[in-house]
Amino acid sequence: MITVSAPGKLMLLGEHAVVYGYPCLVTAVDKRLYVEAEIIDANEDDIITPQVKESRFVLETLSYFKEKFNIRSSIRIKTRGDFSHQVGLGSSSAVTVATFEALNILFNLSLSKKEIFDMSYHVTLLIQGVGSGFDVAVATTGGTLCYVKGGVEMETLSLSNLPLIVGYSGVKADTPLYIRKVSEAFKQRKNEMTTLFESISVLVKKAKEFLISENFKEAGALFTENHTILQKLGVSTPILDTMVAASLEAGAWGAKLSGAGGGDCMIALVDNEKKQTVENAIRKVGGEIIEVKVNTSGVTQEK
Question: Which of 70, 99, 129, 211 has the greatest number of beta carbons closer than 10 A?
Answer without folding.
Answer: 99
